[in-house]
Specification:
Elements (H helix, E strand, L loop, with lengths): L1 H4 L4 E7 L6 E8 L7 E6 L15 E9 L5 H14 L8 E2 L14 E5 L12 E3 L2 E11 L1 H10 L1 H11 L13
Parallel strand pairs: 4-8
Antiparallel strand pairs: 1-2, 2-3, 3-4, 5-6, 6-8, 7-8
């Protein structure tokens, strides 16, 4: 993943869940995709296959995101623990409610929405088979409660069209909702 993010400084940090029974690692890569931003990628989440897909070898997901806050990696670790410990399924077009709010209580975008990665080399983040597993990457975008309701009522494609017209700053955890 370092080759994909190729930041000025890369590090991998381990995170434990609240009970200290599950661990996930998150890659932090500074100045990627542009100066002042940090790219994040879970490492090892794909070891927990998504049983909802009949893919051989089994499919696992890694989550990528971008922020200007180093501690945003904790949001990704929480999303990973939702998958590992609670059976959530990270899927294109899906959402995990309240995950951002757990770390940023005053945020206007408390939920995570998953889309195909678009900020990095798209070819490098396409699904690949590694060591007996199929790995796919999803980009996590913080979204508002109103955007989440819109997602549920109208679907991911309709929400994506709203985002394309409005071009919201997904790094801004206090941005106005597009809905």
């Amino acid at each position: 993943m370092r080759a994909v993010f190729h930041g000025s400084r890369c590090s991998v940090v381990g995170y434990l869940d609240r009970a200290e029974t599950s661990e996930i690692h998150v890659l932090h890569s500074t100045e990627v995709p542009e100066r002042g931003l940090i790219s994040f990628c879970t490492i090892g989440l794909s070891d927990h296959p998504d049983d909802g897909y009949e893919v051989d070898p089994p499919l696992g997901v890694e989550i990528v995101a971008v922020s200007n806050r180093p501690e945003f990696a904790e949001v990704l670790s929480t999303a990973a623990f939702c998958v590992i410990n609670s059976g959530y399924r990270a899927r294109p077009g899906g959402a995990f409610p309240g995950v951002v709010r757990l770390h940023y209580p005053d945020t206007s975008v408390p939920n995570l929405h998953f889309v195909e990665p678009y900020l990095w080399d798209e070819h490098a983040l396409r699904a690949h088979v590694y060591d007996g597993k199929t790995v796919a990457w999803l980009q996590a975008l913080p979204i508002s409660d109103a955007e989440t309701v819109y997602l549920v009522e109208h679907g991911a494609e309709a929400l994506g069209e709203l985002f394309a017209r409005s071009d919201p700053d997904f790094v801004d955890l206090h941005r106005a909702s597009v809905v």
